[in-house]
Write a structure and sequence with these properties.
44% of the residues lie in helices and 11% in strands. By secondary structure, the protein is of the alpha/beta class.
Length: 375
């Protein structure tokens, strides 16, 4: 606690003593000073036993066991991860942090003291996000720095819409969501354990300055029948792109990942034959956090958590309902883009002006006709 905080506490205690001397009740004093009635009763007992001196604060309990330099070193070691310090998984538990403090500084902490130490310095118990080991963080930063300015080029954005595409799926087993239950009795959600089926979703998040964001999607059911496609095909993606162009009413800039289905020859031919209104940018490998569609899928799956669907039709209807609601929430679509760290409101750089030809045409000298990728 700071010196100013301690002085404020002393003033409250002294004011309580003055009210004791005037004969006020503990409940009235607690309400006036905005403290608990139990604290007022404790102060009154100390005042009766030792007078005004007994109510005064005894000061700080002592200096912290770890100084600022040691705390900074501890935080650096925690950021390195448990694997570096010999644990098999990547979980920092209170017991492990307690052991690490003993190894580094030869200071003994209790588990409760470790909890208070971490909370005091801005650490909390969190669920980590997953990242692929194969992910190249340098390539992701390079994409943000060099490729994204070409995607959001102001001359192109004046006429073209930026479209992020991605796919997802949901089986009959719903995602688990938190719910209230009686203490000591874990809630149970009963779902169907037999039968097969899957709902595939493909969607596009469309952005254009001074216009509301759009959400375009397609749904496909897979029931496990012979000859039935399990997911979307190249023709389905082609139709979805054409549908986005019709709804946006102009050329589009498509941004999606390097999935194998996105690189099939029919799609490449489609890109080359429609390069006058379509330019494709590929995201870095294992970088789903750059695609706002991931945030939209997270919203959909959060809202169907613990859904005990009777059949595949009910699951499909629930997914369609959530996607339909998001179409009427452009603010949620905008927040998904903000969550990626990408922004459309930026200044036009010299390299961007050179990359975009006069007149705002969409071809910007891609690595392959109609396709721009980070090599």
């Amino acid at each position: 606690m700071t010196d100013a905080g301690r002085a404020a506490r002393e003033r409250i205690r002294l004011e309580a003593v003055e009210r004791f001397e005037s004969g006020e009740k503990s409940r009235e004093i607690a309400a006036a000073l905005r403290v608990s009635e139990r604290s007022v009763e404790r102060w009154r007992r100390q005042w009766r036993e030792r007078g005004r001196a007994g109510v005064l604060s005894k000061g700080s309990s002592g200096r912290p066991r770890l100084g600022e330099r040691r705390i900074a070193r501890l935080e650096r070691e925690l950021e390195r991860g448990p694997l570096v310090h010999g644990w098999a998984d990547q979980r920092w538990t209170l017991a492990r942090v307690k052991t690490l403090i003993g190894r580094l500084f030869h200071v003994s902490y209790t588990v409760e003291g470790t909890w208070w130490l971490l909370r005091r310095h801005g650490w909390s118990w969190q669920q980590p996000a997953r990242r692929a080991i194969e992910r190249d963080d340098d390539a992701v930063e390079l994409w943000k720095k060099e490729v994204w300015p070409r995607v959001r080029a102001p001359r192109r954005r004046a006429t073209a819409g930026i479209v992020f595409e991605d796919e997802a799926g949901q089986s009959m087993t719903p995602p688990r969501a938190r719910t209230w239950g009686r203490v000591g009795c874990t809630p149970v959600v009963r779902v169907r354990g037999r039968g097969s089926g899957r709902v595939s979703m493909a969607g596009m998040a469309c952005y254009r300055p001074r216009e509301r964001s759009r959400l375009i999607y397609a749904i496909r059911e897979y029931r496990g029948r012979k000859g039935e496609p399990k997911g979307f095909t190249g023709r389905d993606f082609r139709d979805l792109i054409v549908r986005a162009r019709i709804q946006l009413g102009g050329p589009i800039v498509l941004v999606w990942d390097n999935a194998r289905i996105h690189l099939v020859p029919p799609l490449k031919e489609f890109f080359e034959s429609n390069a006058q209104w379509l330019t494709v940018f590929q995201l870095p490998t294992y970088a789903p956090d750059l695609n706002p569609r991931e945030g939209i899928w997270a919203l959909v799956k959060r809202d169907i958590g613990n859904l005990a669907a009777a059949d595949l039709g009910q699951l499909t209807q629930a997914v369609k309902c959530q996607l339909k609601q998001l179409q009427y929430r452009p603010d949620a679509v905008d927040k998904c883009l903000a969550g990626t760290g990408l922004s459309l409101a930026t200044e036009l750089s010299e390299t961007t002006e050179e990359a975009v030809p006069p007149g705002g045409a969409l071809n910007i000298q891609p690595t392959r006709p109609g396709i721009v990728a980070l090599q």
